[in-house]
Amino acid sequence: MDSRGRRSLIMRIEFKRSGGFGNIPRSGTWDTDAMPSEDARELTQLVDAASFFNQPQELRSGGADKFQYTIRVDREGKTHTVQADERALPANLAPLVKKLEAAAGKH
What we know:
This protein has 107 residues and is α+β, with helices and mostly antiparallel strands.
């Protein structure tokens, strides 16, 4: 808890999807300290498995009609943003994107 009695933020994720053939956007923001611990643990594991903070800021493959993703993670005083299109997603980042995309559809 911080000095005001609030729980401190462990990790915050912002996700945006745009583009694609139908251009149906999705977005969401999640704070791991405001969700069930099991869900927070899963997101943390996906971020770690993706080596998110070691990913380049841009991953592009070229071409049209692809989904574009922007993911920003704030964790332990560090912030990193990755912008990628669906064809350029590395295999270790794809599970995180899939989870966030599904969760954004429920927002």
